[in-house]
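Sync notes, pocket subgroup
Present: LS, DG
LS reminded everyone that the earlier model was apo-only. Rerun requested with nickel (II) ion included. Inputs:
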Amino acid sequence: MSYFTNVNPIQYEGIESNNPLAFKFYNPEEKIAGKPMKEWLRFSVAYWHTLTMDGSDPFGNPTMNRPWNEQYTGMDAAKARAEAGFELFETLGVPFFAFHDVDIAPEGSHLRETNKNIDEIVAIFREQMKSSGIGLLWNTANMFGHPRFMHGAATSSNADVYAYAAAKVKKGLEVAKELGSKNYVFWGGREGYETLLNTDMALELDNLARFYHMALDYAKEIGFEGQFLIEPKPKEPMKHQYDYDVASAYAFLQKYDLADHFKINIEANHATLAGHTFEHELHYARVNHILGSVDANQGDMLLGWDTDEFPTDIYMATLAMYEVLQNGGLAPGGLNFDAKVRRTSFEPIDLLYAHVVGMDTFAHGLRVAQQLIDDRVLESAVKERYHSYTGGIGLDIVNGKTDFHKLEAHALDANIINKSGHQERLRGVLNQYIHGGKSLR
Ligand code: XLS
Ligand code: NI
Ligand code: NI
């Protein structure tokens, strides 16, 4: 059975191509800074948005035409979905995919039955992964969809729910080990609160940390060596999410002695919901050595929620790939398209168009970012701006050779002269690079 009829593997055809099912910028084997593009980008398809979701929203019914979900029910649909999934992954030439437990198999009447369903699909994945060479970037447990998680999972007020959540993560880690997953993700969908009037925040945070420690212990016990990731998000579904942004997640990790064991999975749309730019979150993580992986998508300036659009913004992708390059890459993380086609883009082929433009956007960004680095455009500007720390009192500050007496002595009769930051000039140069690179300069 073929779900994407008459579609051949997507090829690189270059910028002049008019073929919507060809890459204009992504040339997987082409080397950028000594490494093939595919290794810098490590693309992954998100099972939930691409294979499972049906296009329903709070105002309307499903719109998506998804033959693999519609022609079957229960486990048969789950199997058809896996088949359609690998057909899509191979057509796109992505090296990875990612899923929540509930995306891949239906929940049973008890966890025992749910786990049996998962095992059946995992066995199919294992075969498909072996024959296609496609890997698992990460898996995770959905601990926000089912009503039992209404008060949270690892921060639930109900200890039975806490135990249930632990059992789900235990299974998730076993699946991760079985499939050789590169990472395991925690996004705390309902880990937060709506009102302090009924909330014991201190207990909830302590319990969350206990939960993560137990997860680490269990990973060690079974020999799962993948990277642990926390994915921050400031709001939605909870009014206050405990992992608001990279900085708050990092503070939590440090307080509870978890910082050596976790890195951060940064989602573009979550960054903007937190009032940050995507590059701010990447940069903050990078300079603190906790940049783990990326959920590649984009939000809508005019809408205040997590719209999870496919990334098409080259400006954003360029600044993001600038961080990834400076980080020396993302491995074992990658760029996971936590993105969904719009409700009106309901045909299966739209999934191909969407991933092609998403992959091309980041490939374009990668090319431009590398040119910026080669030409030391931003590096020189930054170096020049902080020049005062390379000698005199500045160098003493950096070397820890000052105290307030010495600084006061320097300041009392000083004649301070500031220099311009030339922000607009830099934005102009960035535009030049985005629209034609070096040749235009
Ligand atoms: C939701 C999150 C979710 C995580 C995985 O906003 O982005 O999809 O990536 O649970
Ligand atoms: Ni995400
Ligand atoms: Ni999201």
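DG: The mean pLDDT is 97.
LS: Residues 267, 269-270, 306, 308, 338 surround nickel (II) ion (ligand 3) (CB under 6 Å).
Action: DG to write up.
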